[in-house]
Amino acid sequence: MEPPPGIDPTPGAAVAPPVDPRLLVRQEGLRGYLDEFKRKVRGGELGSLPVVIGLIVIWLIFSLKNSQYFTAANAEFIAYYMVGLGMLATGLVFVLLLGEIDLSVGSVSGLAAAIYAVLSVTHHWNAWLAVVITLLSGMVIGGLQGWIFAKIGVPAFVVTLAGFLAWQGVMLWLLGSTGTINLEPKALNALFSGNSFFLGGQIFGAYLLAIIATVGFGASLFLQQRRRKAAGVPSRPTGELIARTVLLAIPVFLVAWILNKATGVPNNLVIFLALLVICDFVLRRTTYGRKVFSVGGNIEASRRAGISVPMVRISVYAISGTFAALGGLAIAATTNAAGQAGADPNNLMMAIAAAVIGGTSLFGGRGRVWSALLGIMVIESINAGLFMLGLTLDIQYMITGGVLLAAVIVDSLSRRTQKSSGRA
């Protein structure tokens, strides 16, 4: 009988250290990575692959239909107008990770814009203080809805549907008979309008942001490698870390170059990407993030592991409310007014669609905050292309609905494949 792999039968021989099987593929070079990629696809672990392929197809179709689609001006248009709904979708990612839903984010975003307008314009409060109060209001509203769901036991669908109606009523009451309050160019415009933030309007500013993003990403990879080596656990080879950093740098600098050909990096895009980085770190690198995924994957197992499920639920809805308020401010900045359009039900539908299209599962336990960015890029790319072709709104809704259905079908098939391969 042969000894197990890694065990020398010679008496007194040292036992070879165990090797992490997940790292064996890296010893085979490029072929190993390709084999690992094929294994994941066959096992239903598609990740962001479907949405990336979808984006490429969308861009190619519209560029063939209209030569002006691949221009810096159109890229800046998409980047600027995707942020408001992207904020709503980011908050929804946290909720969807629990396998729940928040139908109130559209109304909360409109209410947030109304609160800011009343405080800063009607009552002449300091604009920055009004922004803080608005964000706190969104967090309290989300937390309250989460408390009713987690502590009283009312289904999240019912709680947030009631919020959808109630908060829209509060927004209309605050706006008064006119239904609109024009905003003054203060803190809100400084945050979410223009491109002067972080030298965004200058060539140097765009490339500086690209350098910070690339260096920060590379530094985090090497820091993780150093920690794993210090702990005596397998780590990625240095060559792979360099390759990953280069692969990120190429699209980042390409985007900076494209936006510089227009007017630079929009302020709201800088803030949006910074928040995505922070949220990604929270979900993937902190104990709280692991609790969110645990509760979304198996509630009973999370309870037995000592996780406070009610507190996770309440906090997730508070985060959703905060991002809804941020999205409301960003949307108001694009129109320079707080009005009834801020609580448009279509904003809710598009935000949910963005999170799901980007790869967040409706069944909970799987997804990343970058899903919000990818999903809203798909939606806004479609919107921009249809607008340039002069097609009507009904066509836009039909196409977006079809893309959403396709994303859910892919997610369902992926889960079925994972179950059949024993990876679910």
TrEMBL record:
Please explain the role this protein plays, according to its UniProt record: Part of the binding-protein-dependent transport system for D-xylose. Probably responsible for the translocation of the substrate across the membrane.
TM segment ranges: 46-65, 77-98, 127-149, 156-176, 196-221, 241-259, 265-283, 314-335, 347-365, 372-389, 395-413
Q: What is this protein called?
A: Xylose transport system permease protein XylH
GO cellular component terms listed in the entry, alphabetical order:
plasma membrane
From the broadest rank down, the organism's phylogenetic lineage runs: Bacteria, Bacillati, Actinomycetota, Actinomycetes, Kitasatosporales
Keyword list, A-Z? Cell inner membrane, Cell membrane, Membrane, Sugar transport, Transmembrane, Transmembrane helix, Transport
Keyword Cell membrane in annotation:
yes
Topology in membrane: Multi-pass membrane protein
Organism for this UniProt entry = Streptacidiphilus pinicola
According to its UniProt record, where is this protein located? Cell membrane
Keyword Chaperone among UniProt keywords: no
The organism's place on the tree of life at top rank: Bacteria
Main localization (coarse): membrane
A single GO molecular function term of this UniProt record: transmembrane transporter activity
Which InterPro entries does the UniProt record give?
ABC_transp_permease
